[in-house]
Specification:
Radius of gyration: 16 Å
Bound molecules: S-adenosylmethionine
Shape: globular
Number of strands: 9
Strand content: 25-35%
Strand order of the largest sheet: 5-4-3-6-7-9-8
Oligomer: single chain
Order of helices and strands: EEHEHEHEEHEHEE
Mean pLDDT: 92
Number of helices: 5
Distance between the termini: 46 Å
Structural class: alpha/beta
Low-confidence stretches: none
Length: about 210
């Protein structure tokens, strides 16, 4: 099936690229629940075409947007220029928190790869890495959770999507041991899975 060249969120148009994730229900679940304030430091991991980072930048936040896919960063940068917020987003290439080593944020947003895939000989392409997440669907999310605390300010929080295909219960149990709490902010049933929008924050902050 042919992929479209653009995607709309409300009236806002975002250009796509053949090697970049096409925003879908998971993206829009995050977008619908973004609560960003002027001056906040926001990190979006895995920005894809940049839709979420651009919405955050439009509120006056200072945004860092990363991806492991160079085509994604190129596409996101072009969209940021078209939306007039290129000067408010710092685009960085790299794996998870590696491009923001030693930095802390008020809000961290992530729509991670979460599709369980059987091990195979050859490595997937860059577009495959937008959704493939190892045999249990947790290869990226578990690494993300293990490093998250180092990158949140004292009052900071993380907002990210998880699928019922990748053991949401495990994610909900994870933070208690490290002084974090988790809240289910929204849920959406799809044909073969349910999406959960989760917020992580330090236990003494709400
Ligand atoms: C599901 S897509 C989400 C894209 C976009 N944020 C959205 O919501 O439409 C996941 C994105 O994360 C990127 N990604 C996958 N693994 C990553 C990693 N280890 N570090 C940084 N980005 C990663 C992919 O290249 C892809 O752009």
């Amino acid at each position: 099936m042919d992929r479209p060249n653009v995607v709309f969120y409300g009236e806002e148009e975002f250009k796509l690229h053949p090697d970049v994730y096409e925003p879908a229900e998971d993206t829009f679940l995050l977008a619908d629940n973004l609560d960003v304030h002027r001056g906040e430091r926001v990190l979006e991991l895995g920005t894809g075409c940049g839709l979420l980072a651009i919405l955050a930048a439009k509120t006056g936040a200072k945004v860092v947007a990363t991806d492991i896919n160079p085509s994604a960063l190129e596409c996101a940068r072009a969209n940021a220029v078209a939306h007039g917020v290129a000067g408010h987003i710092d685009f960085r290439l790299g794996d998870l928190f590696e491009p923001v080593s030693g930095e802390c944020f008020d809000l961290i947003i992530f729509n991670p790869p979460y599709l369980p895939v059987a091990p195979r000989e050859e490595l997937g392409g860059l577009l495959d890495r937008a959704w493939e997440a190892g045999p249990d669907g947790r290869a990226v999310i578990d690494r993300f959770l293990s490093e998250l605390a180092w990158h949140l300010t004292t009052n900071g929080s993380a907002l990210f999507v998880q699928s019922s295909l990748a053991d949401v219960e495990k994610t909900i149990r994870a933070p208690k041991a490290s002084g974090f709490q988790v809240e289910v902010m929204a849920r959406e049933k799809l044909w073969s899975e349910e999406l959960f929008l989760l917020s992580f924050f330090r236990s003494n902050n709400r």
